[in-house]
Write a structure and sequence with these properties.
The chain is built from 14 helices and 31 strands. It is an alpha+beta fold. It has 5 domains: about 180 residues, 3-Layer(aba) Sandwich (Rossmann fold), CATH 3.40.50.300; about 80 residues, Translation factors (Elongation Factor Tu (Ef-tu), domain 3); about 70 residues, 2-Layer Sandwich (Alpha-Beta Plaits); about 110 residues, Alpha-Beta Plaits (2-Layer Sandwich); about 110 residues, Alpha-Beta Plaits (2-Layer Sandwich). The longest helix has 21 residues. The radius of gyration is 29 Å and the shape is elongated.
Length: about 600
């Protein structure tokens, strides 16, 4: 394996990140920076070079952060080491973004010259400013016919309070202004500071699992140095490991002898699972540990839960192996075995958000060829019981009886919604329909307004974004951040089929919405459950109270078919006998719900 070249003075190092709204050209810009600094050769050139996963390429999104080290000879004659951290842009991965930003001193904020400032631009800028980074605005896509650079400069001043004279006009696709961006990075972004106190402090901002070498931790060194053979300690767990290899990304991994203060690179120690490496954790030396860790670490906890079951019960063991392998790669994904009377054995899985859930399910289907059913996604509720106990409930089945509950608190989110002026009324009514509160409105330009709202996370899980896009004909955008918990009038709604509750359809809903949700589910179930020889009642119930009902009429077998003419009393006798049989069947009959019915109902929800 080749070794990384010469060590450089910390004053010539620049660590920066690229942040932007989805589709504003982050990944394309990083491709151009790699080409301009000759970090990659023409032979290695390909679009979306830092997006290694098939899913990332298809969806045009970045799921994992990818660091890369470049060397750039600036106009002042000095050669600078530039460490670029390409971050995921989606809100589900905002903790990973904040840890990546904490490893930098500056950020390039990309804004599309034709679309201007978007919802996520504001949210990502707030993340960068919270980390005290120097932000350089880059106005991208200036080659588009609809580009309006002056309008975007005005938005930078008015909405984001960023100096527009520092803004660099560029087109990543056409390669315009790339040198100017590199010069701005060298000029405006400060060099890293070395806390030279003899202690090793390195922050882990991501980790991946390599089948041959174990866990590869992506680190930024703040003080001290890491070299092979060193004994290191993870400060959150207190575990000690031996460093097997260190190096930098160019963009492939290149081994080096040492990582110095200010460097961004990788550390491979004898770590078996990514669950042992917490993102945001501090690495220090075992023999001479740092007295305190670097700030900002928090345990990452799932926000959305869903049950994942194999379509065929024979596939349970294969599914178990598949989710185990996924968790080795993705420490934010959690699972535990559960069983359902309707769906058999499966797993209760925890995700950071909806996109994270979609990606995990898609990877199970693609990489492991699993046929799976997933139940309706739910969020984590905090329940305070009448005896003072506090519970965390992620599954409606675990909710205590209503008479033992003092209050239920649900997670709420702060949502930034950017909409065209003519759609404000419709979007406001969508927000109130989803039990949201409007806090303030902010005019972006003569065409668009930013709405600041507070909504329950449960309400935006499934169809909020779709409805927003259809109301605004695709021009609306949204972003959200978590804002704690709030007590609400929430109840558990059970669906009963022929008097038996079916756990797969239980859900926690707001009392004001329970009736409409119950009616909607009952109507759907009526369509998909096959007729029986007796009338089947489908009921939605809260506690013992029925709030919605549908009936599936009985299959009528023609018992008098074999009677040709003759006495009417014989026909009557047969019909009476049938009526008695149906009565007895209704009392003891059970309805077997076919697997297809579950798939159909859970899919539409």
């Amino acid at each position: 394996m080749s070794r990384a070249p010469f060590l450089m003075s910390i004053a010539l190092t620049r660590n920066f990140s690229i942040i932007a709204h989805i589709d504003h050209g982050k990944t394309t810009l990083s491709d151009r920076l790699l080409e301009t600094t000759r970090t990659i050769t023409d032979r290695e050139r390909q679009d979306q070079l830092l997006d290694a996963m098939d899913l990332e390429r298809e969806r045009g999104i970045t799921i994992k952060a990818h660091p890369v080290t470049m060397h750039y000879k600036a106009k002042d004659g000095q050669t600078y080491k530039l460490n670029l951290l390409d971050t995921p842009g989606h809100v589900d991965f905002s903790y990973e973004v904040s840890r990546s930003l904490a490893a930098c001193e500056g950020a390039l904020l990309l804004v599309d010259a034709s679309q201007g400032v978007e919802a996520q631009t504001v949210a990502n800028l707030n993340l960068a400013l919270n980390q005290n980074l120097h932000v350089i605005p880059v106005i991208n896509k200036i080659d588009l016919p609809a580009a309006d650079v002056e309008k975007v400069k005005k938005q930078l001043e008015d909405i984001l309070q960023l100096p527009s004279d520092e803004a660099v006009p560029a087109s990543a696709k056409m390669g315009i202004g790339i040198e100017d961006i590199l010069e701005a990075v060298v000029k405006y972004i400060p060099a890293p500071k070395d806390r030279a106190d003899g202690h090793l402090r390195a922050s882990v901002f991501d980790s991946v699992f390599d089948n041959y070498r174990g866990v590869v931790s992506y680190v930024r060194v703040f003080s001290g140095s890491i070299r092979r053979g060193m004994k290191i300690q993870m400060m959150s767990t207190g575990q000690n490991y031996e460093v097997k290899d260190v190096g930098v990304f160019k963009p492939k991994m290149v081994a080096s002898d040492v990582l110095e203060p200010g460097d961004v690179g990788y550390v491979i120690a004898n770590v078996k699972s990514t669950a042992d490496v917490k993102i945001g954790d501090t690495i220090t030396e075992s023999r001479n540990p740092s007295p305190e860790p670097l700030p900002g670490f928090k345990e990452i906890s799932p926000m959305v839960f869903s049950g994942i079951y194999p379509v065929s019960t024979d596939d349970f063991e294969s599914l178990k192996a598949a989710v185990g392998k996924l968790q080795i790669n993705d420490a934010a994904f959690t699972f535990m075995a559960e069983s359902s009377a309707a769906l058999g054995f499966g797993f209760r899985c925890g995700f950071l958000g909806l996109l994270h859930m979609e990606i995990v399910q898609e990877r199970l289907r693609r990489e492991f060829n699993m046929d799976i059913i997933s139940t309706y996604p739910s969020v984590v509720y905090e329940v305070k019981k009448t005896n003072g106990d506090e519970l965390i409930v992620d599954n409606p089945s675990f909710l205590p009886p209503a008479n033992e509950i003092e209050e239920i608190r649900e997670p709420i989110v702060k949502v930034f919604i950017l909409v065209p002026n003519e759609n404000i009324g419709d979007v406001m009514s969508l927000v109130s329909e989803k039990r949201g509160l409007m806090e303030q409105t902010e005019t972006i330009d003569d065409r668009r307004v930013m709405l600041h709202c507070v909504l329950p996370l449960n309400e935006i899980l499934v169809d909020f974004n779709d409805k927003l896009k259809s109301i605004t004909r695709g021009y609306g955008s949204m972003d959200y951040e978590h804002a704690g918990y709030r007590a609400e009038d929430l109840v558990k709604m059970d669906m009963m089929i022929a008097g038996d509750p079916v756990d797969a359809f239980s859900c926690i809903v707001h009392r004001s919405k329970a009736e409409s949700r119950g009616r909607q589910l009952a109507e759907k179930l009526k369509e998909v459950i096959p007729q029986q020889l007796f009338v089947v009642a489908i009921q939605a119930a809260i506690g013992g109270k029925i709030i919605a009902r549908e009936s599936i009429s009985a299959l009528k077998k023609n018992v008098t078919a074999k009677c040709y003419g003759g006495d009417i009393t014989r026909k009557r006798k047969l019909l009476e006998k049938q009526k008695e049989g149906k009565k007895r069947m209704k009392a003891i009959g059970k309805v077997n719900i076919p697997q297809e019915a579950f798939i159909e109902v859970l899919k539409t929800n």
